[in-house]
Amino acid sequence: MEKKLYRAVGQPIPKKDAMQLLLGKPAYLDDVTPKNCLVVKVLRSPHAHALIEEIKTDVAMKVPGIECIFTYKDVPQERFTHAGQTFPEPSPYDRLILDQRVRYVGDAVAIVAGADEACVDKAMRLIRVKYQVLEPVLDFHTAKDNPVLVHPEDNWVAPCPVGADNRRNLCATDCEQDGDVETVLAECDYVVDRVYHTKACQQAMMETFRTYTEMDVFGRLHVISSTQIIFHLRRILSHALGIPKSRIRVTKPRIGGGFGAKQTAVAEVYPAFVTLKTGKPAKIIYTRQECQIAGSPRHEMEIRVRVGADKSGKIRAMDVYTLSNTGAYGDHGPTTVGLSGHKSIPLYTAGLEAFRFRYDVVYTNKQAAGAYRGYGATQGIFAVESAVNELAEQLGMDPVAIREMNMVREGMIMPAYYNEPASACALDRCMERCKELFDWDAQYPVRDMGNGKVRAAGVAMAMQGSCISAVDIGSATVTLGDDGYLLSIGAADMGTGCDTILSQMVAECMECEVDEVSVASVDTDTSPYDSGSYASSTTYVTGKAVEIACGRLKEQLCSIAAEMMECDADKLYFAGDKVCAKDGSGFVELRDIAYRAQCNNTIAARASATHCSPVSPPPFMVGMVEIELDRETGSVEVVDYTAVVDCGTPINPNLARVQTEGGLVQGIGMTLFEDVTYSKEGRILEDTLMQYRLPTRLDMGHLRVEFEQSYEPTGPFGAKSIGEIVINTPAPAIAHAVRRATGVWHRELPITPEKILMADE
Amino acid sequence: MEIKLNLNGRAVTASAAPDTMLIDFLREQGCLSVKRGYETSNCGLCTVMMDGKPILSCSTLAARADGHEVYTLEGLQAEAEEFASFVANQGADQCGFCNPGFVMNTIALLRENPDPTDDEIRAFLSGNLCRCSGYESQLRGIRAYLDSRK
To answer: Where would I find the H helices in chain B?
Structure first.
């Protein structure tokens, strides 16, 4: 491993916006947009599947203060997707702003805008809708080729060849394999064949979906939104509204959390349509209930894993079939499912002779899913890691030992990961260190605490990507100002700290202090193009663009200095606060270069770079959990969670650590508490956070996080990614520990006390 | 109806509809630190002080504040700054949306119990949800602040 000494990279500095946020300064959408605007709300369907036969708005329109009410009769008829993805989107174009057919409880029926909330609420109650209620498709097992179609319409379009077919309720389907999996499985001494089920968990970011829209002085639609994807959003709105992208400008304030939820244009189309039609500013703020029933949660998946090994524990073949439920619309449907195999099977590359990965993604009349941290990998890793734990048990092997024997190691080519290389992989060291920190050999045996409680341990590994290879674009523009640098990016800091870590990279390259780097606000008019903050890509892709841009800027600054020193630029070098002659004959100070840049000068003191990576180097990690399980009540307490992560070079160890801790706790919530169930009519029961229970600080045991560094040669300063991988280990590790404590494998999440007790009986 | 209260140390008289919640009244008064996370009073984001006690402004009628003293984070900047930098040093602020409620309740905790144990901190702040941090870094920040005073 390459060890390098850095000045700013690797420093645990506070986020640049930390004190302003901690002191409650106005920073978020509702703090910084005008109060004087139309209040927009959406009337939602009470039925899982219905046709609107008649909709009467005349009485509602008479409510004083009501500006407009729109129904399916008023909107453009070209279908589009809400998914924030690079064009052409893999997600089918299956949405209208408002549709005559409603496809889930919560689907949009009418848009109401008025002077204040009270009049809008009153008008919503006065809209009369006559529905022709249709039979819904609620069971995702029977969705494929069901006679009831979720999207029977003729103008449904799939822009990419993802195997989608609206006449079969199919959003995507595929099969890939390497080697003959059936033959190898038949030869294996041990084969585990199990089915695992994960739910449509909610991101539950603290700030709900919200957007403000206005017409600007040039007559363009200015959209201010709490979004991860300013550029994709501009294109989505252009498709939805039928106006050119050049007539739309998108900006974002600080974002109160995203976790992928805001990688989908959940709320933006409604106020945008109102402003476009009325010319007046408009704002929508989702209630928490709307987020729960009409948001963009994780895809529910059922995953069948067949894994085969020989007597020694060598894993020879793996066969994964994923059935994914995209709900009523296909946002991120064809892509999330891919990660359930591509980010799980390669963990066992070492001796794998054959693998097969097949999937179907189906439409149902349930809430449409979207992007949530982990993006399918979380689901796939729960299944594959659980199956490997079951296999180890059948073999009578230590679950750590079976992983040490079979895990992917640095330098291996991963056939199940597009044949990409594990160019930087410290998974083996993560396991070794985690085992030592956690004291695995002492903690693994089940211990009866003598008070009706037992303690037990579990283990899991995980991987993710660092971008979408050969797709994601990151760009950076770095400018030398009067003093200090201005960094302009199109990636969205949603609390993750990318504004800070990218500034650390500028400071590293330009040999200055991080405080001397300012970050420009994100704006489609002025920021360089960036796919957006998702797919764990910002550090790896945009970070590399920052590094390249800084290299170019140094050359530009040397050129300006060369004119000042009347010599050739190649005789000079950049030295942080000055540019010096290589032969020691003189120098000019940076501040004088900055002044010169503003007078009698034709060379820009600014440089841009755009970057895209042909590979997506996986970060790796190991998680080990100790639980205390109460045999009387079935309750599970996480006593200790130890995680060791290989994210390449941690650019900011504090922020990487907090990412890890936050991801672990979300993963623990998904495993133990966060459930999504439907009534038989198709209504979500956990529609508030009283029912959908998030982890509190009393639910957490001790979290221990360490890093084992690798050096990724294609990343900035050796960095890979951290944001998503960290949510992936809790589910399989805790399910493993529960099995140890109770003797029951729980293959469906969440593992609630009720399920533990019922299973015991 | 007319509401008279002492807001962040100054007398305020304003009219509000009888069903106005205190959170909306305070934001109307420019106290934008006060945030709404859920509608079911279980996230703690809207925490403010009424007569020195932390309350949830999302489930308190503005009328209840009539004749009382209310402090939001806007009025307690100096007290917050004392420990906020320790929280920042841990990177615990993250998206920041839950920070004002968390900081307000931490002020309430430290006023009531200047030297709390880790378990007392966890218990006192258990009603303040955070989806980003996993809570440990917030605890480390408060602990570092407490240790710095010893």
So the answer is: 22-28, 77-89, 99-112, 118-124, 136-148
Across the interface, of B45, B73, B131, the residue whose CB is closest to A694 is: B131
B39 touches chain A (CB under 8 A): yes
Instruction: Please state, rounded to an integer, the average pLDDT across all residues of chain A.
Output: 97
B83 and B70 in a common domain? no
Residues A74 and A55 in one domain: yes
Predicted confidence (pLDDT) per residue in A594-631, tens digit: 999 999 999 999 999 999 999 999 999 999 999 999 99
**Beta A210-215 vs A221-225: how paired, if at all?**
antiparallel
Between the CA atoms of A91, A97, A98 and A103, what dihedral angle is there, to the nearest 10 degrees?
20
* Residues shown for chain B: 150
The boundaries of the domain holding residue A601 are 469-611
Q: Which of residues 10-39 of A touch B (CB under 8 A)?
A: 12, 14-15, 17-28, 30-31
Q: Which of residues 456-485 of A touch B (CB under 8 A)?
A: none
Q: Which of B20, B44, B74 is the last residue of a domain?
A: B74
Q: How far is Cα A516 from Cα A482, in angstroms, rounded to an integer?
A: 11
Give the chain B residue whose CA is nearest to the CA of A33.
Answer: B32
Closest chain B residue to A207, measured at CA: B37
- Give chain B's domain count: 2
Residue B26 distance to chain A (closest CA, Å): 12
Whole-angstrom Cα distance, residue A689 to residue A238? Answer: 34
- Cα separation, A725 vs A704, whole angstroms: 16
Give all strands (DSSP E) within A508-614, no chain letters. Answer: 517-519, 572-574, 578-581, 587-589, 606-611
Check residue A1 and give its pLDDT. Answer: 44
For A226, name the nearest residue in chain B, comparing CA atoms only.
B95
8 Å CB contact between A315 and A300: no
The complex's ipTM works out to 0.98
Residues A524 and A649 in one domain: no
CB-based burial, A414-425: b 16+ in 10 Å, e otherwise: bbbbeebebbbb
Instruction: Name residue B84's amino acid.
Output: A
CATH number of the domain that A90 lies in?
3.90.1170.50
